[in-house]
């Protein structure tokens, strides 16, 4: 029989939910409402007065070539971060799940990067690739491979992608490892007796059973790539060279706090919020159909 919790008083559930609702209202709904309001207003240079301008801020955004280019940059960056992070984390989880001796040490070492702050991750990878004294930069130059993320846009993109993926791998690894450990060994043993190869066992049994975990991590990683990578970009490349690594969330900050275009920045934040909501809805509407619960 289904068990349900019954509260003796009608106000107790609301009291229990109140702290979480207060956090959501103060740190999400209120800033979102402020962004919506400022996106349709235009302030003077000193912020003393505001004038309603409607969709003018949005029209100016989509007439700006640099803003349109940031869409392409964000799409490429997000795809690389999300799919690379999931693929590498799944590979590490599969390998760690097979380790018997010293498994705790391997798992602990793989979890450590998640404790590193994003800005520290950005600085760490920047120092390793700093030319000519960075460890990895020096190694590449010794092989005759020139590296200069300050002038080469492809190198700069690779730098922030590697830093962002490294930062998120631990989070993905934990969920994939938990998912692998929840799969009944009897299914794997039955497939082995039937003569299925390890590759076939993975794609026909293991990966389909991991689809709920993979779908959850896909949503989380897309949101992470759009929002939580700001500190990495700011610390490693500052959106450069030029604006080649200026993803949407970094451009919101740059235009608002450095270019002092508060209303244009608010309009950008509204567009960014709409994009993330749309992507999340699309994932739940279409990708979730492939998930086997």
Automatic annotation (TrEMBL):
It holds the Pfam family BPD_transp_1. It comes from Ramlibacter cellulosilyticus. CDD domains: TM_PBP2. It is found in: Cell inner membrane; Cell membrane. PROSITE patterns: ABC_TM1. This is sn-glycerol-3-phosphate transport system permease protein UgpA. The complex is composed of two ATP-binding proteins (UgpC), two transmembrane proteins (UgpA and UgpE) and a solute-binding protein (UgpB). The keyword Transport applies. The keyword Cell membrane applies. It is a multi-pass membrane protein. GO terms for cellular component: plasma membrane. It comes from the Bacteria. Residues 71-283 form the ABC transmembrane type-1 domain. Keywords: Cell inner membrane, Cell membrane, Membrane, Transmembrane, Transmembrane helix, Transport. The chain crosses the membrane at residues 12-33, 75-97, 109-136, 156-180, 201-227, 266-287. The gene is ugpA. Signal peptide: none annotated. Belongs to the binding-protein-dependent transport system permease family. InterPro entries: MetI-like, MetI-like_sf, UgpAE/MalFG_permease. Its main location: membrane.
